[in-house]
């Protein structure tokens, strides 16, 4: 795994016994994993065992450790990869064991978390339409107006497994407005991808 200088520096703080003794390191590691998994978990800055640590070092280490954890889970890193990266930033064998133990205990929950984020927003894959002509409304008044029934086939993920249909009814003017807005959106996306 390649780590940015900022992440490496934050992990080096964590490896330094001057800032984090083994007991503090263990508490920090558990709180960091917990904060990634649950929004109700205790904040690193509020943990009683971590109060004596400089807040800027604590924040930097927390961000670096969280980044390292998520990158490791994303790449499905094994023990040798994790150990190698931590050795590069001066972790001793005991700290590596503590970290990897927490990593193993929380890995599955973090995988579920990353899987739930998803890769892309829902997108339209097909459109069906039908023209109806309304001659009278429910009050028996003459209307004589065309009406379009539109059905969008929408996929919710990249695999195309989860899909639904979005159905609506519109007039000619509303349909023209919709088509114009979709063309504008397509042009905006094209410009954004070219930048």
Automatic annotation (TrEMBL):
Membrane-crossing residue ranges in chain numbering: none
Matches recorded under InterPro entries: COMM, COMMD3
Family per record: Belongs to the COMM domain-containing protein 3 family.
Xref: PROSITE patterns: COMM
Domain COMM span(s) in chain numbering: 123-193
Pfam families, per the entry: COMM_domain, COMM_HN
Matches recorded under PANTHER family: COMM DOMAIN-CONTAINING PROTEIN 3 (PTHR31159:SF1)
Top-level taxonomic group: Eukaryota
GO biological process: sodium ion transport
Name of the protein: COMM domain-containing protein 3
Source species of the chain: Clupea harengus
